[in-house]
Amino acid sequence: MSRTLLLEVFDAALHAVHGQARTAEYLRANPRIGDVHVIAVGKAATAMMHGARDVLGKSLRSGFVVTKHGYEDSSLLGDARIRCLSSGHPVPDAASFAAGQALIEYIAALPRDAFVLVLLSGGASSLMEAPVEGMTVADIQRATDFLLADGWDIGAMNRLRKRWSRLKGGGVLALLDGREVEVLLISDVPGDDPAVIGSGPLWPMMHAELPPLPDWLVECLPPPQPVSLRPVPHRVIATNGDACKAVINATRAHHLFATNGDGPLEGDVLEAASRIAQSLRDAEPGIYVWGGETTVRLPENPGRGGRNQQMALALAIELDGRDDIIVLAAGTDGTDGPGEDAGALIDGQTVSRGQVHALDARRCLNEADSGTFLAASGDLLYTGPTGSNVMDMVIGFIHAPD
Known about the structure:
Helix content is 39%, strand content 18%. It is an alpha/beta fold and 402 residues long.
């Protein structure tokens, strides 16, 4: 019952922030007369494009979609109006740079009086790229690997990414060159700042301090080039807060207590796991939900898994033997790190189940190989592409005493 309940409320969260439904809902409430050209980029790009196509119908004159490899939607490929591309995430690959060039060409070919609807979701920073002069493809890939391993938060990562890109930090808006535009966003960043989502392709670069950089990156990184751009009409249509609220509402429908956890999901993943475990040990029966995004510092040769699997295994160690507590930790985009798992669903016997396979939980945690342990314990969670991306969720359930 406990596992089924957590999966049910997590599914309710994903439905509440689904790109197709949220995009269609907004466009029905804000109808547009005349032709519309649609650009959709991010992990939720295909879902958002579906929502736009559902409402716009024949008014959809052309479309351009870039999403993550494996997140393609074959039903869009049959629409001759829409060009669909996929590329690499979290590190941009050759297809990411090809997608960036294709977007530049698509925008250049639009009529001068075109109305452009941009549908933006998390992942766009990696999925489309066009380097500024002085940065090579290899530089950007090496820099991205550095950011991912060094534990930077998403805001700082995206401030740096703007420095090396022709598309980020207002670059796409500059390419649109006065064409009328509106942006709908699904937020994968704390605070839901449109200048941070996808590295702000339609918002100007702002000066901000960065964490220390290695010498090799300082040498190849060009100085910031602030751009003065016009304000952009926009609406954030789905957030992590929406997902957390849906979990609480779905739980209360079962006549169970539910509330947000004590503070956002942020900071170092192991420190966050320790805080959450302590909260759950001391809490009353019910469901508690945390939303946000943690950071991970990776060892030189990390193993299998991402930050949610690290969170789950750390919680399994902290809560070992507590048969009254079960916890789900997962990414709302359906992926966690470079693999295909979304996260994991652990309980007080997770560590014991993994030990049967001669694995040491703490060693796997220290080696960033949590996925290997959680695969052995049978606790990995697979959702496939979810049609959204609103950061991560940790949902803890405490049983009432029998």
